[in-house]
């Protein structure tokens, strides 16, 4: 490593360097904007070098998203192979060298230094994960997502024609079932057109799917990825031909992958994606994915309380990945960091994020989608999203250091108390056996890590944190938001006297409305219904 001499960026609010960018103009604009925020100086952008010290953005191959910072004489050189990587490089340099932090979409920390001087080591990095996406509302905003070097879910459709569950889009039952029930699943002795799958060996089904896929591709020629994949249910076809294919491969994936491979032959310039999900998670014994077939493996059954690599309850999910690794060089993993039935409930999975992502990448996962909360808010959504982003970029980053830095920067003086809460609830969940279910909730832990004695400790830590931030209403607002999951759990578990319950309900309802929270369950329970039901239960 080459440690730079101190380089003066600005002096007395005057720029001491210029920015040189012949190609990467957007990255240069971002760099100039943030350096102005830091120093109050105005930084010129030009296409050629000058006698002045410069920050030079230049083209060099570091992989799709990789980049490097180099020191050349009096200049700082930022290298990347494309505009997006150059933007990543600039945000990374601003964070690591200048001290910026992009905590949430609504709050970032930009230090002020009218006399900014930097000294840093040369650095280069190319991420092992070629595609990284986090499903939280913040990460749907392209500007915020790229600050964390993530693909914004709001722009997914630029690259994807269909994302998943496309069978009925490509062969709609409302169009075909009445006249051709044989196109659809033979399930439990009868053909089913509603909430089922396709009969994939049927030649007419193949022709219909192929023709419809061509039509959709013609409407979106720039999209490279097209999912030809099962619907979101387990009613797969059990006819004789489907059963033969599945028995041959030892998995219902047999009929699916044979079908998808045949479709993929017609589109050599596209990537045809399919799900290994629910009944198709087990890898086929004989059939192999075609070279342009993309496997999206969903580890929905894994336990979320302990690392997947070592937890006995995750043995099935672990083996599924290891089996796919043997036959697929580039696994796309759909991971889950969400509790679907209780979106605002405590969900102490923060300690497994690092071990899990390391296990994934060490076993051929090259694309990772983390399904978090598609709704507004959610338990520690700012912290969890931040931590996931850092670990997806570099799985070997120090997650404890990242978390501590976030808590102290985002919650300020309340950071140590919130870290104390995080440690306590994780310790207690692990002592109770480390079981964390994505379809679970507070009632599952009412006798263990959410029992009343512990709940009162959790609530007390947040009450202390709220009092500690009394003089900073913005920080206090963030702390009150972080406290909502504990209040939610207390309401569900009905802890305390009627007066305590009403106060807790009122605090939860007030903060929920201020944050714009709408849903407490992904499918049907709104905040208004939850609060109304809680008040009625307390009145009874």
Summarize this, please?
The chain is α/β, with parallel strands linked by helices and 540 residues long. 40% of the residues lie in helices and 14% in strands.
What's the helix and strand layout?
Elements: E1 7-8, E2 10-11, E3 14-15, E4 18-21, H1 25-39, E5 45-46, E6 54-59, E7 67-72, E8 75-80, H2 83-96, E9 117-118, E10 123-125, E11 131-135, H3 142-147, E12 160-162, H4 167-170, H5 173-176, E13 186-187, E14 190-191, H6 203-219, E15 225-227, H7 240-249, H8 253-264, E16 271-276, E17 293-298, H9 315-327, E18 331-336, H10 353-361, E19 365-371, H11 381-393, H12 399-410, H13 415-431, H14 452-468, H15 473-493, H16 498-515, H17 527-539
Parallel strand pairs: 4-5, 4-6, 6-8, 11-19, 12-15, 15-16, 16-17, 17-18, 18-19
Antiparallel strand pairs: 1-9, 2-3, 7-8, 7-10, 13-14
Description:
By secondary structure, this protein is α/β, with parallel strands linked by helices. Among the domains are: 7-126, 2-Layer Sandwich (Chitobiase, domain 2), CATH 3.30.379.10; 159-274, no CATH class; 410-539, no CATH class. It has 17 helices and 19 strands. It has a seven-stranded parallel beta sheet, covered by helices on one side. A six-stranded mixed beta sheet has the order 5-4-6-8-7-10, covered by helices on one side. Strand 4, helix 1 (25-39) and strand 5 form a beta-alpha-beta unit. Helix 13 runs antiparallel to helix 14 (452-468) and helix 15 packs across helix 16 (498-515). The model has no long low-confidence stretch (mean pLDDT 96).
Arithmetic mean of pLDDT: 96
Major sheet strand order: 11-19-18-17-16-15-12
Low-confidence stretches: none
Question: What characteristic shape results from the CA principal axes?
Answer: globular
| Rg (CA only) | 26 Å
Which structural class do the helices and strands define? alpha/beta
Binned, the helix content reads: 25-40%
Number of strands: 19
Oligomer: single chain
End-to-end distance, in Å? Answer: 69 Å
Instruction: Count every helix, treating DSSP H or I runs of 4 or more residues as helices.
Output: 17
Main sheet overview: 7 strands, parallel
Q: What share of the residues does DSSP label as strand, in percent?
A: 5-15%
